Amino acid sequence: MKPVIIRSLSELRKLTAQWVRRDESIGLVPTMGALHAGHLSLAKAARDACDRVIVTIFVNPKQFNNPEDLENYPRTEHDDAEKLAPLEVDAIYVPDGDQMYPKEFATNVSVAGLTDVLCGAHRPGHFDGVATIVAKLFLQSGANQAFFGEKDFQQLQVVRRMARDLDIPISVVGCPTIREDDGLAMSSRNLNLSDDARKTAATLQQVMQDVAAGLRTGKAMGKLRPTALARLKEAGFGDIDYLDLRAMDDLGELDTPERPARLFAAAYLDDVRLIDNIAI
Ligand code: AMP
Q1: What is the pTM of this model?
Q2: Ligand 1 centroid, distance to 235 Cα (angstroms)
Q3: At 178, is the pLDDT very low, low, confident or very high (cuts 50, 70, 90)?
Q4: Same domain, yes or no, for 156 and 195?
């Protein structure tokens, strides 16, 4: 059955009220659209775990710190709906800007600490935008579980903290990163890469795998980083925002993986900002 497309909060509430009355569990998959297999894997995980599934599509202006990035962000609503149809998603929630941020909107949800580092340090206001919109989606949908990709691992941790801190009764589930055949993490932004840049993009994952292998043999991040950065530059990457080893729980910086850790990277290619992370 084709998913129903919902554009207003009142329609969403009407639908979810029926499900709650029948004691059906609700899974939520928040996205910004331009759906790829990574997003679809979240919808499948939600389908497996919950009675009802809502995928949301909203290009959230508040989480873009760069107006050009917002303008260039791909929007493919028709294709998105087609891709979701075979997955037995119940509803696609596509609110417009006025629905989410009415004129006098004045509230900001800000998670301290976790957002000081990595993308938080390089994209001012980004995680406030994420935490605010995700809090709204959690409260609007009344979902029992929400599904997020480990591709955006810092986002996943920020959302978990926010839900716990605000006592929102929802369980936040992290799902593995889905990759292209050459290892590049799938991302809606990959659509903005030129053909040449698309070929180069996989170097990010190769360099990260090599750093990970070095870390596993006992080498320190401080020793491995200079060679890794030089390889990325040589391959054609522009600014590299970070290549860091960080603790999984609090994202504190590490030189060796003495506690559960992940390797995080963000770098520009063709003016497209690519991010990735892997478990060590
Ligand atoms: P976005 O539309 O980029 O805001 O992403 C929506 C959700 O999809 C987030 O939870 C992302 O972490 C997740 N996601 C994006 N890319 C991938 C991927 N390659 N594999 C798994 N999840 C992903």
Answers
A1: 0.98
A2: 26
A3: very high
A4: no
